[in-house]
């Protein structure tokens, strides 16, 4: 009798062991980088950044930028290029809405040195294959990329690895904004928009960015999933955009610091001290149709979700130092 | 029972992981049991040292030195197993007033090490503590079950022996075992090739850059790569119509 159900369990058990094996190996990427095994470089993909650098940074050179907006993509990415039409549309509209700000998105927030998965020394082939599956067919293999990036989010939330990973990400972010002529000694504010799992990455990096620049650093969590990280209190202010239909927010229950009765956690302290604000996004889901970045006008009329999100982000960027002026419900 | 009827290594491992009562009695007094137990302890020791290797990397150990330091930790873990078996053996004799063969105790305790083969999984980001807790509970159960079925101790005796054994081992580590542990730790420091100053609890204080204006060197560290542009989803329908056009 026992052999029967244990045979039945064998498949999920094998899958679990393979997953745990993979998951246990992932920290070596971060730790090996720290130990200097993979060199010191910060990579950037010239095939995308060249075009964007010339188009968006030649302007700020004439006119100093009023804000640097760094968009950190959700876990679907493999490189600094976006795969998502909705993300692209959101960024275009945001750039048009904020002509004096530098909006940057060519950053891959799930790699310690900004090296795209498709450029990795050993596994590039595997990721190219997974990317092809993701683009060309609704194959399960495409989800390998999401799982891989989710594990990086877990690293950024793990107390053992987070300080290492977050320092790496802060370096990548500083390097990216400096490529667009950001001066660490200036007081031009930096806005980190963390979409989904990148909410954790954005918040985690603030602790270190804060040590290197005098500029105010704000975090805009776009349906972000994050733990109660010390970065929440290091940020000038955290704006958490929370869609009323965002089911991914259930993940917060995995993070003890986000539970409301953990009064001493960074998140709850920030909420009490008015250094973090939750903004309700009426009727918005996490992703896809009805999500924060949906560009189609809703059936019941009114502006598209992406326009409401862009407008709110623009308001936050304009009045970040006076959070009381920012609406609590959109 | 002839040796041919004994389970193979993988089967032994599987049964030990399931805390199957039969495996302890079966292998207790066999030479093969000693080999299997030794192999399980070695694998568990290696897995444990990998699970604890974060601190080596935090101290920026070079790859070769990393392997060397890992092997020293593995040896140290095997030494810990011998000490553990020794305490269980002596506490058992004192408590039950029955003569026990040390070899049998060593085999049974070795088989109870099986769950620690997964100690490597403690590296899993965010879930490490949970996995550590599950493995600790599993190992604790394993040693009680092993002592009960393998050495014929009553359940309460098995529980008492392992609990007392643990206390005695902690005492030994601080007294008689201390010089040996010091020696192993000195060896590990030598093997690492760098001073192991940072501990795991220091991780939040570690900084990669001590200079405030370090970012002025960022330019020099930049490396450009040229990646193929991401190919958007192919439009199969268009492809087909083109094909048709060409045929026409």
Please outline the helices and strands.
The complex is a heterodimer of chains A (330) and B (248).
Chain A (H helix, E strand, L loop, with lengths): L1 H24 L1 H8 L7 E4 H17 L4 E6 L12 H13 L3 E4 L19 H13 L6 H15 L4 H18 L10 E6 L2 H15 L4 E6 L8 H4 L2 E7 L22 H7 L3 E6 L23 H15 L11
Parallel strand pairs in A: 2-3, 2-4, 4-5, 5-6, 6-7
Helix pairs in contact in A: 4-11, 7-8
Chain B lengths: L8 H9 L3 H7 L3 H21 L2 H5 L4 H34 L5 H10 L16 H24 L3 H20 L3 H15 L25 H4 E4 L10 H12 L1
Helix pairs in contact in B: 2-7, 3-5, 3-6, 5-6, 5-8, 5-9, 6-7, 7-8
Protein described:
The complex is a heterodimer of chains A (330) and B (248). Chain A is α/β, with parallel strands linked by helices and 330 residues long. Chain A has a single domain (38-325), classed as Rossmann fold (3-Layer(aba) Sandwich). Helix content of chain A is 45%, strand content 12%. Chain A has a six-stranded parallel β-sheet with strand order 3-2-4-5-6-7, sandwiched between helices. The model of chain A is unreliable at 53-60 (pLDDT under 50). Chain B is an all-alpha fold. Chain B has one domain (7-192). Chain B has eleven helices and one strand, in the order ααααααααααβα. In chain B, helix 5 crosses helix 6, helix 5 packs across helix 8 (155-174) and helix 6 packs antiparallel against helix 7. The termini of chain B are far apart. At the A-B interface, helix 1, helix 2, strand 1, helix 3 and helix 5 of A face helix 4 and strand 1 of B. Strand 1 of chain A pairs parallel with strand 1 (222-225) of chain B.
SSE sequence of chain B, one letter per element: HHHHHHHHHHEH
- What is the terminal-to-terminal distance of chain A? 58 Å
Largest interface: A-B, 56 and 44 residues
What is the CA-CA span between the terminal residues of chain B?
81 Å
Structural class of chain B: mainly alpha
In CATH, what is the homologous superfamily of chain A?
Alpha/Beta hydrolase fold, catalytic domain
Structural class of chain A: alpha/beta
Helix content estimate of chain A: 40-55%
Largest sheet of chain B: none
- CATH class term of chain A: Alpha Beta
């Amino acid at each position: 009798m026992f052999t029967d159900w244990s045979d039945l369990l064998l498949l999920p058990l094998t899958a679990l062991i393979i997953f745990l094996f993979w998951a246990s190996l992932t920290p070596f990427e971060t730790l090996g980088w720290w130990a200097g095994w993979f060199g010191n470089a910060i990579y950037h993909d010239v095939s995308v950044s060249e075009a964007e650098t010339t188009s968006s940074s030649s302007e700020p050179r004439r006119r100093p930028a009023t804000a640097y907006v760094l968009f950190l993509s959700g876990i679907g990415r493999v490189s600094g290029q976006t795969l998502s039409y909705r993300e692209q549309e959101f960024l275009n509209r945001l750039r048009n809405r904020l002509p004096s700000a530098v909006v940057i998105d060519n950053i891959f927030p799930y790699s310690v040195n900004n090296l795209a998965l498709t450029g990795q020394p050993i596994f590039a082939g595997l990721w190219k294959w997974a990317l092809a599956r993701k683009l060309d067919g609704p194959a399960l293999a495409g989800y390998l990329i999401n799982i891989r990036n989710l594990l990086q989010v877990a690293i950024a939330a793990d107390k053992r690895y987070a300080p290492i990973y977050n320092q790496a990400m802060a370096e990548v972010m500083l390097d990216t904004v400096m490529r667009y002529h950001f001066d660490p000694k200036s007081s031009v504010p930096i806005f980190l928009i963390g979409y989904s799992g990148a909410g954790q990455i954005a918040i985690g990096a603030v602790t270190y960015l804060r040590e290197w620049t005098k500029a105010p650093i704000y975090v805009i969590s776009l349906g972000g999933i994050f733990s109660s990280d010390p970065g929440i209190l290091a940020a000038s202010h955290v704006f958490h955009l929370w869609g009323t239909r965002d089911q991914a927010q259930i993940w917060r229950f995995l993070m003890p610091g986000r539970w409301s009765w953990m009064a001493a956690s960074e998140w709850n302290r920030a909420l009490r001290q008015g250094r973090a604000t939750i903004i309700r996004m009426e009727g918005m889901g996490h992703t896809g149709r009805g999500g924060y970045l949906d560009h189609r006008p809703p059936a019941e009329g009114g502006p598209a979700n992406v326009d409401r999100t862009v407008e709110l982000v623009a308001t936050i960027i304009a009045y970040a130092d006076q959070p009381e002026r920012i609406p609590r419900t959109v | 029972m002839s040796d041919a009827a004994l389970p193979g290594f993988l089967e032994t491992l599987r049964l030990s992981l399931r805390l199957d009562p039969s495996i302890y009695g079966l292998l207790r007094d066999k030479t093969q049991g000693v080999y299997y137990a030794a192999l399980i302890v070695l694998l568990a020791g290696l897995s444990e040292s990998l699970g604890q290797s974060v601190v080596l990397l935090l101290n920026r150990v070079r790859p070769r030195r990393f392997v060397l330091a890992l092997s020293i930790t593995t040896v140290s873990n095997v030494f810990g197993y011998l000490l553990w078996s020794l305490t269980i053996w002596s506490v058992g004799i004192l408590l039950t007033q029955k003569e026990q063969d040390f070899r049998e105790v060593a085999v049974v305790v070795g088989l109870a090490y099986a769950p620690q083969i997964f100690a490597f999984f403690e590296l899993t980001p965010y879930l490490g503590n949970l996995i550590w807790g599950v493995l600790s509970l599993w190992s604790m159960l394993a040693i009680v079950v092993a002592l009960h079925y393998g050495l014929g101790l009553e359940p309460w005796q098995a529980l008492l022996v392992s609990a007392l054994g643990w206390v005695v081992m902690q005492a030994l580590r601080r007294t008689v075992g201390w010089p040996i542990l010091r020696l192993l730790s000195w060896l590990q420091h030598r093997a690492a090739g760098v001073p192991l100053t940072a501990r795991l609890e220091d991780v939040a204080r570690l900084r990669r850059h001590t200079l405030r204006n370090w970012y002025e060197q960022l330019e020099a560290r930049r490396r450009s790569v040229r990646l193929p542009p991401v190919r958007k989803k192919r439009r199969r329908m268009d492809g087909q119509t083109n094909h048709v056009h060409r045929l026409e």
